[in-house]
Amino acid sequence: MAHAHKLEIFRGLLKFKSNTQKIWGVLVFLTVVTGVEVFLGITKPHLLTENSFVGMKILNWIFIILTLVKAYYIAWDFMHLRDEKNALRRAIVWTPIFLVAYLAFILLVEGNYIYNVFADGFVTWNF
After folding, report:
1. CA-CA distance, 104 to 111, in Å (whole number)?
2. Which of 22, 82, 108, 115 could form a disulfide bond with 16, CB atoms 3.0-4.6 angstroms apart?
3. Max Cα separation, the chain?
């Protein structure tokens, strides 16, 4: 037997009367987050592009975090992860988060190496 879907978002802070209203509510949330990303990408605030955190500009960190928020919320609401058991939710949600963090780490380390090679020139060992 089919179970009724939960009609609230943001952990119950915003409740809807039907699935259609909930879909529109989630669409508005995702549109706002995308709008913030586009606004920051077009304006590129000086404060966020000049300062770095853990080897990367703060603006890039904001883009990564907002993209993960959107991906999480799409999976949470449109793929109905909120209706699944905790173990399946954790397996689906936490695995990509760890893999994206690992990918970001690898890209930062390798990108820094390539930057140093181009900046300092390639030096070979003389044996």
Report:
1. 10
2. 22
3. 75
